[in-house]
C-alpha cells in the first residue's frame, strides 16, 4: 500500500493497514520505513506489534530457570543460544551465571551425574564438552555413558521385537532404535501401528541382538523370525525377513535426470524431491541434471504487472516509489522497467539515433528549429556536440545575449 505525501498526513489506520500487509516487523521496517517512523514517533508501535506479532520476550526469572541447568556460561550459550543472547542483551549474564564455575574442577562423580542428563554420546559431547573431555582423558567414558542409547550407522543394524499380549510378534532391524520405535507407533503404514489400532493389545518392545553388519543382521533377523514362529508366536510382519529396513535410496545420475526432466524450474524440483535434489548437489551433477531448467526469478513471481500498478498507484514521482517501496524500486531499476511504469519527465521523448546518423549538414539544418542552446542539448545532443566541436555554435546558435542570424 502506498502512503500519503508526507509523514504528517499518515493516519494510524493507514499505518496499521500497511503493517498488516507487511506480514512481520522486519518487512514493515525495511519496505515501509516512513510508516514505521510515524508509528515510533506517535507511540503506535505497540499497537503494530500486537497486530502483526513479535518474537516471544523472556523474563529475568525464565532466563534464571534455564541458566540453573548449566554449569558454565559457555555450556549455556551452546545449549540455548536464544535465552543466553536475550540475557546478554539485557545485562543479566553476571547475575544469572553467579552460581556457575568459570573453571570447572570435574570429578568422576560429577561427570557421571552430568552424563545422566543426556541420552546419547553426541548430545553429551555437544552439551557439556568439558565433562566429555574429562571422561575421555580419565578413561571413564564407557562407564558414564553406559545408560545411553547407542546409534548405529547405515552399515550396522540391531534386531528388535514387539511382543504383544495375544502372542503375536513383530521382528525387525534398524540402525536407529529411537526413531524406528517412534515410526512404528505413529506411521499409519506400519504393521505394528495397524495392529495396535485394530486390537488395542499391550506390547513389550526390546532389542534381541547387538550391533551387526548388514549381512549378519539380515541372517539374524530371518533366524529370529523362524525362532519366534517355532515357539508358537504369530508373526505380523508384512514382509519376509532379510531386508535392511528403512534407509535412504541410492540414486543414480540417470534416475535423477529422469525425475528432473518433468520440471521447468529447480525451485519446484527441490520442493517436490528434496532428497534427490540434495543427492544431485552432493555428487556435483548440477550441470547434467539441471541443464534444461530455466533460471527461477523470485521477483518476477512476487511483482506481476497488476500488482506493480496497484502498488505505485498513489506514487507521483520515482522518489515516492524508492522511499515507500524500495524493494519494488530496485526490481524495476534492475530490470529496466522504470520508464514503463513511471516515465521520467526529464527524459527526452525523441528517439535515440544510431551512431553515424548525425552529420555536420544535418546538425546545421536542425539548429534554427531550437530557440536556445539548452533546448538543442535536450533534443539533439549529438548534433549540439557536433556544432560545438567544429566551432559553429556562435554562428548557427548564438547564446541568449547574442542575436540569432537571419534565415
Write structural notes for this entry.
This protein is an alpha+beta fold and 407 residues long. The protein folds into seven domains: 7-52, no CATH class; 60-96, no CATH class; 108-144, no CATH class; 156-235, GIY-YIG endonuclease (3-Layer(aba) Sandwich), CATH 3.40.1440; 253-296, no CATH class; 299-341, no CATH class; 348-407, no CATH class. It contains 28 helices and five strands. Strands 1, 2, 3, 4 and 5 form a five-stranded mixed sheet that branches. Strand 1 and strand 2 form a beta hairpin. Residues 1-7 have low confidence and may be disordered.
The count of helical stretches stands at 28
- How is the CATH topology of the largest domain named? GIY-YIG endonuclease
Identify the overall geometry: elongated
Number of domains: 7
CA-to-CA gap between the ends?
56 Å
Mean pLDDT: 79
> Using DSSP, what is the number of strands?
5
What is the CATH architecture assignment of the largest domain?
Answer: 3-Layer(aba) Sandwich
Largest sheet: 5 strands, mixed
Assess the beta-strand content as a share of residues: 5-15%
CATH domain class of the largest domain: Alpha Beta
Unreliable runs? 1-7
Find the structural class using helix and strand composition.
Answer: alpha+beta
Amino acid at each position: 500500500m502506498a502512503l500519503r505525501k508526507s509523514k504528517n498526513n499518515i493516519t494510524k489506520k493507514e499505518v496499521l493497514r500497511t503493517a498488516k500487509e507487511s506480514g512481520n516487523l522486519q518487512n514493515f521496517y525495511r519496505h515501509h520505513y516512513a510508516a514505521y517512523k510515524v508509528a515510533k514517533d506517535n507511540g503506535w508501535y505497540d499497537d503494530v506489534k500486537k497486530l502483526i506479532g513479535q518474537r516471544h520476550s523472556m523474563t529475568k526469572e525464565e532466563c534464571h530457570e534455564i541458566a540453573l541447568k548449566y554449569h558454565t556460561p559457555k555450556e549455556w550459550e551452546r545449549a540455548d543460544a536464544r535465552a543466553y543472547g536475550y540475557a546478554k542483551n539485557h545485562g543479566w549474564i553476571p547475575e544469572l551465571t553467579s552460581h556457575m564455575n568459570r573453571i570447572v574442577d570435574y570429578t568422576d562423580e560429577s561427570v557421571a551425574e552430568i552424563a545422566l542428563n543426556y541420552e546419547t554420546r553426541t548430545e553429551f559431547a555437544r552439551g557439556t564438552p568439558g565433562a566429555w573431555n574429562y571422561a575421555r582423558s580419565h578413561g571413564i567414558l564407557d562407564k558414564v555413558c553406559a545408560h545411553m542409547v547407542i546409534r548405529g550407522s547405515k552399515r550396522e543394524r540391531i534386531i528388535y521385537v514387539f511382543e504383544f499380549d495375544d502372542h503375536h510378534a513383530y521382528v525387525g532391524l534398524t540402525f536407529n532404535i529411537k526413531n524406528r520405535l517412534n515410526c512404528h507407533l505413529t506411521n499409519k503404514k506400519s504393521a505394528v501401528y495397524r495392529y495396535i489400532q485394530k486390537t488395542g493389545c499391550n506390547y513389550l518392545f526390546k532389542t534381541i541382538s547387538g550391533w551387526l553388519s548388514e549381512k549378519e543382521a539380515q541372517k539374524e533377523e530371518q533366524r529370529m523370525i523362524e525362532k519366534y514362529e517355532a515357539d508358537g508366536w504369530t508373526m505380523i510382519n508384512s514382509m519376509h525377513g532379510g531386508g535392511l529396513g528403512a534407509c535412504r535410496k541410492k540414486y543414480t545420475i540417470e534416475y535423477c535426470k529422469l525425475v528432473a526432466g518433468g520440471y521447468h524450474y529447480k525451485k519446484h524440483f527441490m520442493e517436490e524431491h528434496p532428497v534427490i535434489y540434495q543427492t544431485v548437489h552432493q555428487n556435483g551433477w548440477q550441470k547434467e541434471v539441471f541443464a534444461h531448467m530455466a533460471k527461477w526469478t523470485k521477483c518476477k513471481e512476487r511483482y506481476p504487472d497488476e500488482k506493480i500498478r496497484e502498488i505505485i498507484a498513489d506514487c507521483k514521482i520515482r522518489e515516492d516509489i524508492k522511499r515507500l517501496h524500495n524493494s519494488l524500486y530496485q526490481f524495476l531499476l534492475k530490470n529496466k522497467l522504470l520508464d514503463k511504469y513511471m516515465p521520467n519527465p526529464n527524459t527526452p521523448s525523441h528517439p535515440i539515433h544510431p551512431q553515424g546518423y548525425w552529420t555536420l549538414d544535418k546538425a546545421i539544418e536542425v539548429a534554427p528549429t531550437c530557440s536556445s542552446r539548452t533546448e538543442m542539448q535536450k533534443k539533439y545532443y549529438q548534433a549540439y556536440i557536433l556544432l560545438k566541436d567544429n566551432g559553429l555554435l556562435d554562428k548557427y546558435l548564438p547564446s541568449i545575449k547574442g542575436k540569432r542570424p537571419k534565415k
